[in-house]
Write a structure and sequence with these properties.
There is one protein chain. By secondary structure, the protein is an alpha+beta fold. It is about 30% helix and about 25% strand. The protein contains 13 helices and 21 strands. Strands 1, 4, 5, 6, 8, 9, 10, 11 and 12 form a 9-stranded mixed β-sheet that branches. The two termini are about 25 Å apart.
């Protein structure tokens, strides 16, 4: 039995206010860009999702009140408005010279949904709890759960029809993504989309694990509710772009020679005259002391077959081996670096003394992610970085809770 994918009466911004309203993707912003948004965007959805960004130190009670009042002000002043009819939306993302198309919809989730909507990444529980509180407070889903699927459909017939006409919006967000959106309101097109999605046996969460977890908890905590609706942005596996999620490490009592020798005992390690991007899983690039090294993780069959990803091996084997009382070194912190940062940026962090070593990790392929999810495997937090991805605040779902 497939999940129910359906149209909905969205709240969305007036076209002239869309760039002001849409919530920024923080990973794509510099501190300067974020500060500009905080100063100039009176009606940005950041006020609803995270009032603390505008008012550091605000109490939890006042934060909830500010979020609710701000959302109501956006509705009252017609900054955002609700559609008269239930619609689907065709969504276009353009970045890195790639054109990605998907459908924005509502999906009815219930206690059986975990068998149909599969996860692949661990979450931060506090983040999920924070989203749950916002959902209960505002009754509005501002950001979609970003989903993918592998089943064959004929949805391109709909997408090709709509991309030939003028979109509701076409604009570029900070971070470099151009976004376009079309409303699908014709009954025959709506029926066609619903029919095509019945072919999809499983959906896979690309981005939005915390949101999905919050909705699962909401369902558990809502009395007399058998299901809740989930705002979803659905892109097939050929319309997904994945980058790596790299790491930089600060190590107490760092000793370069011991660091390298410890790794060599586990895996072949080769000095490189210049950086070379790994083209497949199993090759890890390390930068330390102005030198790039290639580490062949896959050559150690005993270790490699016991871990699902290169990130697992880095965090659970290499870092654990380096952080050892016998050699006096200890990990102070391991920082996640979004995949939009290239190897030059990683090496700069080390050269400036902000880190002792940087690790460039090969991106997981979408097929590998789906395979992990099928086997109920979970990779470490911040293992996958999707860019571009749907923006928050562009299409919003009012919840019946």
């Amino acid at each position: 039995m497939s999940l129910t994918v359906k149209p909905f009466r969205a709240f969305r911004p007036q076209a002239k206010r869309v760039k002001e309203v849409v919530l920024p993707t923080f990973d794509n912003l510099t501190e300067k860009q974020l500060n500009k948004i905080l100063k100039e965007s009176e009606y940005n959805f950041l006020n609803v999702v995270s009032p603390e960004a505008f008012y550091p130190g605000i109490s939890k009670t006042n934060s909830r009140k500010h979020a609710y009042d701000h959302l109501q002000s956006m509705i009252r002043n017609k900054i955002i408005f609700q559609e008269d009819d239930e619609c689907f939306y065709v969504y276009h993302l353009n970045k890195y010279k790639k054109n990605l198309y998907g459908i924005v919809a509502s999906i009815n989730i219930n206690n059986q949904s975990k068998k149909k909507i599969l996860k692949h990444e661990a979450i931060y529980n506090e983040r999920s709890k924070s989203i749950l509180k916002t959902l209960k407070n505002t009754k509005m889903q501002v950001g979609p759960v970003y989903l993918s699927f592998r089943d064959k459909t004929n949805l391109n017939l709909i997408i090709n029809k709509y991309k030939k006409i003028k979109p509701l919006y076409k604009f570029k967000t900070l971070g470099g993504t151009t976004r376009s959106l079309w409303r699908v309101s014709e009954v025959k097109d709506i029926d066609y989309i619903k029919k095509e999605y019945t072919k999809v046996k499983k959906f896979y969460i690309a981005d939005g694990h915390h949101r999905f977890s919050a909705l699962e908890d909401l369902l558990k905590s809502t009395k007399n509710k058998q299901s809740v609706n989930m705002l979803s942005a659905i892109f097939d596996q050929s319309n997904i772009n994945i980058l790596g999620f790299h790491r930089i490490a600060n190590i107490k009592n760092y000793d370069h020679e011991i660091f390298i020798s410890k790794i060599k005992k586990l895996f072949p390690l080769t000095k490189k005259t210049k950086f070379k991007s790994p083209r497949k899983d199993g090759i890890l690039m390390i930068y330390t002391k102005k030198q790039w090294y290639a580490v062949d993780l896959s050559s150690n069959k005993k270790i490699y077959r016991n871990y699902e990803t290169d990130t697992d091996i880095l965090e659970k084997v290499i870092i654990k081996t380096i952080s050892n009382k016998s050699n006096g070194m200890k990990l102070k912190n391991l920082i996640n670096v979004p995949g939009k940062s290239d190897h030059v940026e990683l090496s700069k962090q080390v050269d400036k003394g902000l880190a002792d070593a940087a690790f460039f990790i090969c991106p997981l392929a979408i097929k590998k992610i789906m395979s992990l999810a099928d086997r109920n495997r979970v990779v470490p937090k911040k293992s996958t970085y999707f860019d571009p991805k749907p923006a928050d605040g562009l299409v919003n779902l009012l919840m019946d809770i």
